[in-house]
Amino acid sequence: MRAEGKGTVASLKIEIEQQIPFGSAEEEALLNLVRTSDCVTRTLQRKIRPWGITATQYNVLRILRGAQPAGLTCSEIGRRMVTAEPDITRLLGRLKALKLIRQQQDRQDHRMVRTQISEAGLKLLAEMDPVMARAPQEVLGHMSPADLEILIRLLERARQQCGDASNNVGNRKNQAGGPG
Questions:
Q1: DSSP letters for 135-173
Q2: Domain count across the chain
Q3: CB neighbours (10 Å) of residue 48?
Q4: What is the extent of the structural domain holding 137?
Q5: Residue 157: which CATH number?
Q6: Does residue 1 carry a pLDDT above 80?
């Protein structure tokens, strides 16, 4: 267990009003990670909300913008998403109802449906881009480049132990859609 008092602040313990010590450093780290993820997610959702879409829908639109003009299949979108989404088909249905995407049968394999971003989807992202481009700086700009590099490496190492490697969340090269 980590010793408190030598210049460290047990801020999570204070934030959640926990009276007893954490059971282990791993427990404290995991709860800090979950708390921080929630905080960052809520911050991004507040930035996205004025456009009437969710952070997950925003992520899909960015993925599809990066996959122009060919588009992607449902499973390809799922592999590239930053967060796992159990029902991609329903998510795409909502985006289609908003006219932000279009879908058509694949020309080579008629069993597959390819999804592309629509002109309305591109226009929406263009409106959002200036606000969303500032988000990383607003959320993490208080950290030094060295701290950010350490944070990135530590998060990647922590993710290696997740049994969800099939989502490719740990593989940055597959993140054509970027954050969101």
A1: HHHHHHTTS-HHHHHHHHHHHHHHHTTSS-GGG-TT-GG
A2: 1
A3: 21
A4: 53-174
A5: 1.10.10.10
A6: no
Pick the range with the lowest mean pLDDT from 13-17, 27-31, 172-176: 172-176
40 Cβ contact list (under 8 Å, min separation 6)? 139
- 21: preceding bond cis by omega (within 30 degrees): no
- Give the list of residues 6+ apart from residue 119 with CB closer than 8 angstroms, or none: none
Asked whether the beta carbons of 106 and 72 are under 8 A apart, the reply is no
| CA gap 54, 47 in Å, rounded | 10
Is there a domain that residue 28 lies in?
Answer: no
Picking from 18-22, 78-82, 102-106, which range would have the lowest pLDDT averaged per residue?
18-22
In a domain, 46, yes or no: no
Reported as a single tens digit per residue, the pLDDT across 130-164 is 999 999 999 999 999 999 999 999 999 998 988 76
DSSP 36: H
Residues ≥6 apart with Cβ < 8 Å to 148: 140
